[in-house]
Amino acid sequence: MKQMSLSESGFERKTKRTRKREFLDEMNLVVPWAELVSLIAPHAPAPGAKGGRPPFAVQTMLRIHFLQQWFNLSDPAMEEALYDTPMFREFAGLDAGEDNLPDESTILRFRHLLEAHDLSLQILATVNATLAAKGLLLKSGTVVDATLIAAPSSTKNSSGERDPEMHQTKKGNQWHFGMKAHIGVDADSGLVHTVVGTAANVNDVTQAHALVHDQRAVQGRGDSSPVLANS
To answer: What percent of the chain is predicted at pLDDT more than 70?
Structure first.
């Protein structure tokens, strides 16, 4: 019988709900785990006929694979993270008192399994289709952003004054003098299609209408034009 750990006994220390925790909770709900498992299961190793330790569940290994991608972890680093980070074990569906956790070789073999059967692209397509169906994936439209462009603030020039078309603005705790470039980027290709220049103190939202694709061009492509404000 496994000894109950403190984390299972009700004496665990209450901690802040971190952004990492929020992210994993969202992914737990958004990713179509059942569909992905059914995609991989036919290729997964079956328990040996002579007994021995059974392979880890497909969903457990898939979740570990996703953790690797999201947090940019190597195979050895992922193995260590499973031991060091209870939140990762919980997300992967591993028991807190588990005697054996997937090691780096097991993690590597699962990735090779996905590669051998070209499952990575199928996984990506399945996830993207689910996100698009839920309205969580931007397929077309314009991403709006703005950047500050500094201008000389000194009055030691022939006119003895600053450029009247420039202005100062505060970003964070720092003041900037100059102009602002408002940029519209095609969400599909990543290409900049519109740039509008204003004084630095002009709010980004006031220029959003000028940065969206011309509606006639959008209709001609059969697209809609959602706008993501990113200031």
So the answer is: 75
Integer Cα distance of 196 and 124 in angstroms = 36
CA-CA distance, 207 to 195, in Å (whole number)? 10
Question: Is pLDDT above 60 for 210?
Answer: yes
SS3 73: coil
Q: Which helix (H) or strand (E) holds 197?
A: strand 192-199
Length of the chain: 231
DSSP 205: G
Query: 55 is written with which tokens?
Result: 């392979």
What CA–CA distance (Å, rounded) separates 111 from 61? Answer: 9
| Cβ neighbourhood burial of 65 (10 Å; 0-12, 13-18, 19+) | buried
| CA nearest neighbour of 200 among 123, 163, 148 | 148
Query: Could you tell me if 185 and 142 are in contact, meaning their C-beta atoms sit under 8 angstroms apart?
Result: yes
pLDDT band at 223 (very low <50, low <70, confident <90, very high): very low
- The domain locations on the chain are 17-133, 142-230
pLDDT value at 105 more than 80: yes
